Amino acid sequence: MVSRHPIQFNDYYQQIYGSRWPELLASLNQKEAQVLLAPFSDERGDVEWLPGCWWLTPERSSWPVERNDEGLLRYYVLDPASVLVARALQVNSNDQVLDMCAAPGGKTLVLAQTLGQEGLLEANELSPARRARLTKVIQQYIPKPLRQRLFVKGKDALRFGLVAKESYDRILLDAPCSGERHLLANSSELKQWKPKRISSLSRKQYSLLASGIEALKPGGRLVYSTCALSPEENDQVIA
């Protein structure tokens, strides 16, 4: 129910979405749809519009942990939007690719799937704890030969435009954001929510995007994404 949430939070989104907000809020409180991604496999899956993925059903959630002949984990759980975002980058076989804010690693797996013999992928994460999780995912899922062309970094993504100007053919910026679904699931964070949080994130997102654009080669492609609803973190950042 809307009344369970702080007045500031509801008022902010009500002003943006009007009569649509109660429906959007209800959808955020529903269980998130997830898929099983089978990286580095020829398996088709059962998500018609997302090859290589299966819907995560209650039955499949109880599947035992499976490993392939190389000892790598077979399936990675993530939301379908994450797969779409990474594939939208349209990586070519010899591209130099940067995942600017890579943890926990699901999108990195999708990008690595499309990397060719001459391509390189840099997965960047500033936070040591999140970077450790990212490294573990890479080791658990990506074949060793391919890992030789995948580099985990701990750089400040705000500086890529200065220290790596025009260095990458493809850049994915899945920017830190409000993440309303996560916020609604965390009562302590929700109680502390204020509109200025969105403004602060928006400024950081803009700076990250500017850094990414500077690091992109002429003619390259950058995909900017968030899991936020606020236009201030989406359209207004790229406008």
Task: Compose a concise summary of this entry.
The chain contains eleven helices and eight strands. It has 239 residues and is α/β, with parallel strands linked by helices. The protein has a single domain (2-29, 90-238), classed as Rossmann fold, CATH 3.40.50.150.
List keywords for this structure.
three-stranded antiparallel sheet; 239 residues; five-stranded parallel sheet; Rossmann fold; alpha/beta
Task: Produce the secondary structure layout.
Blueprint: H1 7-17, H2 21-29, E1 35-37, E2 53-55, E3 76-78, H3 80-87, E4 96-99, H4 106-113, E5 120-124, H5 128-141, H6 144-147, E6 150-153, H7 160-163, E7 168-174, H8 180-184, H9 187-191, H10 195-215, E8 216-225, H11 235-238
Parallel strand pairs: 4-5, 4-7, 5-6, 7-8
Antiparallel strand pairs: 1-2, 1-3
What does this entry look like structurally?
With about 240 residues, the protein is an alpha/beta fold. The chain has a single domain, classed as Rossmann fold. The chain has helices at about 5-15, 20-30, 80-85, 105-115, 130-140, 145, 160-165, 180-185, 185-190, 195-215, 235-239, and strands at about 35, 55, 75-80, 95-100, 120-125, 150-155, 170-175, 215-225. The chain is globular. About 30% of the residues are buried.
Largest sheet data? 5 strands, parallel
Q: Can you say what the CATH homologous superfamily is?
A: Vaccinia Virus protein VP39
Taken in chain order, the helices and strands follow as HHEEEHEHEHHEHEHHHEH
How much of the sequence lies in strands comes to: 15-25%
Quickly name the level 1 CATH class.
Alpha Beta
CATH architecture: 3-Layer(aba) Sandwich
Low-confidence runs: none
How large is the radius of gyration? 19 Å
Q: Compute the separation of the termini in Å.
A: 34 Å
Tally of alpha and pi helices: 11
Largest sheet, spatial ordering of strands = 6-5-4-7-8
Helix/sheet category = alpha/beta
The total of beta strands comes to 8
Would you tell me the overall average pLDDT? 93
Shape: globular
Helical content stands at: 25-40%
Q: Assign the CATH topology.
A: Rossmann fold
Count up the domains.
1
